[in-house]
User: Fold this.
Amino acid sequence: MKVQQQCIDEFPMIKRGVNTGVFAIENEQVDVYDVHERNSESWESFVSSLPDDKCCHVFTHFPYIAESDHVARDKFIHILWAPYAASKKDKMQLSFFARNVLISLGAEGASRIEAGSKSSLEYGDIREKVVRNITVK
Assistant:
């Protein structure tokens, strides 16, 4: 799957946490759907802005308060967004080519979240997954 140059160009600002990026699968390639500043947006507002009918690679920094020291932190996450209304072909491509997209963008270190509905991206559920992934056992 080809990743458009605009996605690659936008990605450094997303990885640094300045912007949030939503890259949609269109015509068997990954292209920019939406890129915007993330500082003024709540998690709920961000989730509600995701498309209802397009499979997307979503990159953002998830904000949370650490329980151990009560410090505000964030974690770079990659959401494989496959809503119910998206085509089966796009869903298969999203999953099959996810690793290639991460390598093309230089995003292998992002925590992976899979979601098919906005209710599966509720703040508490995502916080639990993020904290569980960064906790050393």
Observations:
- The first strand starts at residue 2 and ends at 3.
